[in-house]
Every structure is written in C-alpha cells, then in structure tokens.
Backbone:
C-alpha cells in the first residue's frame, strides 16, 4: 500500500502531502510517524492507494486516528481560510487526556459570612460550578483553603457538575412549538440550517433545550456555541440543570488537564451535549445531531489567528458532513444569515411582557453631553426610589473620527460608504486608502465646530458619582475585563444592588441575565457608527436593539430605553428604536448589494505588517499585483494604510470576490512561495477570509 502523508509541522513550505509505503491496516485519517528529510515527524494519512511503493520510505508507526468528518472539516478549513492542513488539524485533534483523577466541582452556596479574601475566591465560582483545580489556578488559592470554605458551608463540592439553577419545565408557547418542530423536522430530514430569529427574552434557549432533547432521544449528540461563556454562566447552567452529567462545559478558563478529561468524556460518548465558546464546534461528539449557535451575530465567532476560521461557517459545514441540524439563534440576525438561510422561524414576543418603549435624544438640541436632561431625570428617579440602570459608552475603535457638533454630519468614503479615520492632518478610508485633507468647516452647514466623535466622555463615571452620591456606580470595560474574575464579580454586584448604575462598553449590552434593569441608555450612538467598517450600521443596530431588550422583566415591564445621538435620522437608530429588525435588514441588504459587500460578494483581506510603513505598503501591493491575474472578476481595493499597532506598520488590501475559495487557494500558494522573502524583509502577510474586523 502507498499512503499519502501530510506532515504535521507548521512551516508553510512543506504544506503538502508526501508518499510512503504502509501496511494493509493503514487508512485515511490515521495519525502516523514518518521520516521527513532527516527528522522523524508526526503526520496524517490523507489517502491510500494500491501499489508496492518501491523506493519510498515506510510509515514508521501508527499512533491514533481522526474521525472522517473531522479530517474532512480540517481539509476544508485549510483550503477555505488559506491556512495549512497542519494548523487546521491542530483545531480538531483532541488535547491529551489528563492523567490526574477527576476533580470535584465547586458550587457556590452563599457569599454570606465570607471574609474579604474568601469573597475574592468565591467571585471566581459565580453561578456556574467549576472544577477545583481550575478554581485554585484562577483564584491563586489552595485546595485546602477551598475545602475549608466547603466546611464552612460557603461552597459545596460535587463529584460532577451540578447547577445551582433549578430546571423549570415550562409549557412551550405556540411560537416555540413551531420553532422546535421546524428544527426537529430538519434533523429527521438529514440536517440543514435553521435561523431562529427571536427577540431578547423570547425563549430561544428553551427551544435549543427541546431540540437537543429530541436529538438525545434519537441517539444523537449536540454542541451549543455561546459567545463568551465566562460572562454567561447562567446559559451553561441551564444546560447542566436540564441534562446533568451528559453535559461537558468547555471554556477558556479551564486547565489543560481538565480540558483533556472533558474531551475524553466527549469522545467516549459519556458527555453527549457540549456547551462552549467558538472552538467547541470541533468537539468530537459521536453521532452529532444538533449544533446550536447562540447569538449568531456575535463577532467573537471569528477566530483572529491562523486558521482564521468563522465558527458559524464551520458549524454549517460540519452540519452538512454529519447530517446535523444547525440552529442559529439571535435577536439581530446578520444580513448574511437573513439572506442565506431560507428556513427561518421567528419568536416575535417576549415571554412575560412587551418590549420597552425607546426614546431618541437629539444631542444637537440638548446641551448636556454626555448626560442629557432626560437621562439625568431617569437616573434621579432611580436615586430616589431604587432600581438599576445600564449606560453604554462604546468607545472601541472609534476615537479618531470627526463630526460636526452643529448638524451631526460625519465624513465618509464616497466609494466604500464607511467612516473616514483621522491620520495626522488627513482623513483616510481604511477600506480603499482614499485620503482627504482635514476640513476646516462643515460642508453641510458651514459650522467650524468640528470635534472628535465621543471626545470628552472619559469622566462619565466621575460625573455620575458627583451627581448621585447614593447610587452605586460600577464600570465594565476592557480594563476591567482584563482582570480575571472581575467582570463576573462586577455583574454579580450589579445584580444584587438596590440602586446602581453600570457604565460600560458593548460588554454591558450582551446577553447577560440582568433582571430588574429599569433604564438602559446609549450615551453616544455615533461612536459605534464611526467605526471604519462596512458593518458599522449592522453593529450599531445590533447593539441598540440588544440594549433595548434589557429593561423590564416578567410582571414588571416598565422599562425605559434612551438612545442619545447626533444623527437621530439615521436608519440604524430610527429602526432600532422601533424594534424593526426585518425592515433594517432589508434596507441594509440593498445597501450592501449596491456596494458589493457580503453576502453579495465575500471579502478576503491581505494584511501586511513591517517595521516601516513603506515596506508594509510594498508587501501588500506586491501580493495584490501577483494575485490579480488569477482573480478574474474580483475587485481589489487598496493598499490602505492602517494605524501602527504594537510598534509595527500595517497596510491591507481588500478583495471583493464571488469566488472566495479561489482567492484563498491563490493566496495560500503565494504565501508558500513568498515565505522566505517575507522573513528576509522582517515582514508578515496574513490572509483573512470573511474578515470581521479591519483594525
Ligand atoms: P432568550 O434566549 O430568547 O433571550 P430565554 O430562553 O433566556 O430567552 O428565556 C427568557 C426567560 O423566559 C427565561 O427565564 C425562561 O426560563 C423563560 N421562558 C422561556 N420559555 C418560557 C415559556 N414557554 N413559558 C414561561 N417561561 C418561559
Ligand atoms: Zn454641520
Ligand atoms: Zn474607501
């Protein structure tokens, strides 16, 4: 027999198969050891053929195997994302199983009576139980300390994860029944994609639970993907509450040993339901029947390192390979999903009450930026009578755009319809590279009051403390998120407070369970719109809609939502205020059709970095020129200069293409050929298919 073996080494130069002789038992998917040059390396058999293979070296050993669908998935990832098979296989190969005996799981009983130090440790436990070894590592404590806390009744130690959430078996609403039936029907028909468009609080999670129930009854397993598991412990807890020990929870905080042990439970068929972030899409669940992608609009489903896969596309591909149903759930579907998934069910009403009314506050008319009169009044009511408010101030990536403070005008690229970014004394398009001198006056109204968007808002927290000494003021942003356990602790403190206001970035708008929020406000909606990205409208709409779904709760629907903006007439603002998701998407799709953006064409980005701006530009230009002849019919934009990052200059080229697979193949070949040149120039080039960020 002759085996085609792909070496599992990272060098792009040997991203190809080599032939070896092999014994009769060697099959596609076998993990082997072979000699490559003078080294012994690991490899994977991608195919076998008859023949005696005279003159070929032999396969030295067989060490394991990869299930067929997962090998095919890895090959598809390497090809689709211009990566290498070795890197793609790195995603699907299970980590080595831990050798230690399984840990007990730590479950929070109460914070009452805990010392300050103990409270810090308890903050890491949160609402989702976690293994003892993970807690010891995360909290910097010892096993004995935790055991003593168990002795004092602060925590319980369970042999297997037990959720503190009680499982509530509700009677499904008619809408939920329809959604479950559509998904189960797809499962029985051999799989397929289903978009579940349900407003916040409409009971989407209950739909996933019922569909998974049906899958388990048919002997099939399930994967549930959630964006940020550390911040949504309740979601994971609801799966453990319903399915108990058959659930494996994978999140970035768990120790390698624990991860190995969980993967062993999954492969053995002991854990049939896997709940985890992005990479859980690769879990080797046997007889996979369901993949649920919760909050499918979330950008964290894109992996921002090679292979730059999109877990939503991977889920769709894996669903086809395994004849599984793939459920995409969200309150704000992506235009790509709206146009691309014909099977759609909707849950238009919130369980336990209508969505709150939304007020738009025109910042041009109200002098009180960033705290306007209506907002001050709403917060004063909380200060008087108690309650909770969430204030969103989304600064990320938007600090360097300008707008007119008199009429609200912003500066956009006429070709790409994205916000222009301030580079020194010029305004630059981060998509195509167009550059204009900085204007002195507004072209619409003549005003010279031009200012940075969002400037002067850093002191929101201080201002709030000054205005309302009785309110607890809390902050949740990237600084806080960088400290392990801190965001969870902040959210917990907020949930328990009687009168509090939480100020933060988009982290505060995401799907945390925050009952009893009576006011939700966006301080400056234009910040999100100013991100130099063709998805700025989609992201803004999503952010506003999600935030608008926060206030109120079953039996207490008097919530208040305020959107402060300099552009109260813009579609994302107007339509989010009306909860008009379908109307927004139809209009957004039309805009994208005209501009050649996804889903009408796909984007492929080539990002070059180097010490010098000129070198980064040259690398991007060289690759674009070399690739162009093979990209017939595609539109190439750039090179566009980007800001320096971590002391490196950057430049990128964008390809708008109807054949992303072809572009990926062409660029994968180019990167292999250029690897040595790039190293010599101390430059890097990265290919990003379906980029989700352009920073
Ligand atoms: P979503 O995921 O759509 O935001 P959830 O699934 O979290 O919504 O449901 C919101 C709340 O409504 C949860 O507390 C859930 O237990 C409850 N719920 C869901 N379905 C029902 C139902 N059919 N009857 C009563 N309560 C329900
Ligand atoms: Zn103006
Ligand atoms: Zn442009």
Residues:
């Amino acid at each position: 027999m002759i085996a085609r073996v792909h070496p599992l080494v990272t060098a792009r130069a040997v991203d190809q198969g080599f032939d070896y002789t092999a014994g009769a038992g060697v099959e596609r998917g076998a993990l082997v050891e072979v000699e490559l040059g003078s080294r012994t390396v690991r490899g994977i058999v991608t195919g076998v053929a008859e023949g005696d293979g005279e003159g070929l070296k032999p396969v030295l050993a067989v060490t394991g195997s990869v299930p067929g669908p997962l090998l095919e998935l890895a090959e598809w990832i390497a090809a689709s994302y211009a990566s290498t098979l070795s890197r793609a296989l790195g995603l699907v190969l299970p980590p080595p199983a831990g050798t230690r005996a399984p840990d007990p799981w730590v479950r929070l009983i109460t914070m009452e009576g805990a010392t300050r130090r103990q409270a810090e440790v308890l903050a890491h436990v949160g609402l989702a139980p976690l293994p003892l070894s993970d807690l010891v590592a995360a909290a910097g404590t010892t096993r004995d300390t935790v055991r003593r806390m168990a002795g004092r009744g602060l925590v319980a130690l369970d042999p297997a994860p037990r959720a503190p959430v009680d499982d509530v078996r509700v009677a499904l609403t008619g809408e939920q029944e329809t959604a479950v039936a559509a998904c189960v029907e797809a499962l029985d028909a051999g799989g397929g994609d289903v978009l579940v468009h349900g407003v916040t609080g409409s009971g989407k999670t209950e739909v996933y639970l019922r569909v998974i129930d049906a899958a388990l009854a048919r002997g099939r397993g399930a994967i549930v993907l959630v964006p940020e598991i550390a911040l949504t412990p309740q979601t994971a807890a609801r799966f453990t509450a319903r399915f108990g020990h058959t659930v494996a929870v994978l999140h970035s905080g768990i120790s390698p040993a624990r991860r190995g042990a969980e993967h062993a439970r999954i492969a053995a068929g002991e854990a049939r339901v896997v709940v985890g972030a992005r990479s859980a899409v690769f879990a080797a669940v046997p007889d996979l029947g369901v993949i649920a992608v919760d909050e499918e609009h979330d950008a964290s489903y894109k992996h921002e390192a090679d292979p730059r896969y999109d877990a939503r596309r991977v889920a769709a591909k894996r669903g086809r390979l395994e004849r599984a149903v793939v459920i995409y759930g969200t309150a704000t579907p992506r235009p790509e999903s709206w146009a691309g998934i014909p099977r759609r069910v909707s849950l238009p009403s919130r369980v336990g009450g209508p969505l709150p009314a939304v007020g738009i506050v025109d910042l041009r008319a109200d002098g009180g930026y960033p705290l306007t009169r209506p907002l001050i009044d709403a917060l004063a009511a909380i200060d008087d009578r108690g309650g909770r408010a969430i204030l969103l101030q989304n600064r990320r990536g938007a600090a360097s755009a300008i707008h007119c403070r008199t009429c609200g005008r912003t500066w956009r690229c006429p070709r790409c319809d994205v916000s222009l970014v301030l580079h020194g004394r010029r305004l630059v398009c981060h998509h195509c590279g167009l550059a204009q001198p900085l204007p002195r006056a507004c072209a619409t109204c003549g005003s010279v009051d031009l200012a940075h968007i969002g400037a002067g808002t850093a002191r929101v927290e201080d201002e709030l403390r000054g205005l309302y000494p009785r309110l607890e003021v809390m902050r949740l942003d990237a600084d806080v998120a960088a400290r392990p356990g801190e965001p969870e602790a902040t959210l917990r403190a907020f949930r328990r407070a009687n009168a509090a206001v939480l100020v933060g970035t988009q982290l505060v708008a995401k799907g945390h369970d925050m009952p009893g929020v009576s006011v939700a406000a966006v301080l400056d909606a234009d910040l999100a719109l100013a991100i130099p990205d063709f998805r700025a409208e989609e992201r803004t709409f999503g952010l506003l809609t999600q935030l608008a779904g926060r206030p109120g709760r079953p039996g207490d629907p008097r919530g208040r939502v305020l959107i402060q903006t300099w552009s109260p007439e813009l579609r994302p603002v107007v339509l989010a205020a009306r909860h008009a998701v379908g109307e927004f998407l139809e209009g957004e799709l039309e805009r994208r059709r005209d501009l050649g953006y996804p889903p009408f064409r796909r984007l492929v980005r080539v990002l070059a970095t180097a010490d010098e701006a000129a070198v980064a530009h040259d690398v991007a230009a060289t690759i674009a020129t070399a690739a162009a002849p093979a990209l017939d019919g595609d539109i190439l934009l750039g090179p566009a200069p980007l800001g320096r990052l971590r002391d490196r200059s950057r430049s990128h080229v964008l390809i708008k293409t109807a054949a992303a697979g072809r572009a990926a193949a062409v660029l994968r070949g180019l990167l292999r050929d250029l690897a040595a040149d790039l190293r010599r120039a101390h430059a890097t080039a990265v290919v990003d298919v379906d980029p989700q960020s352009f920073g």
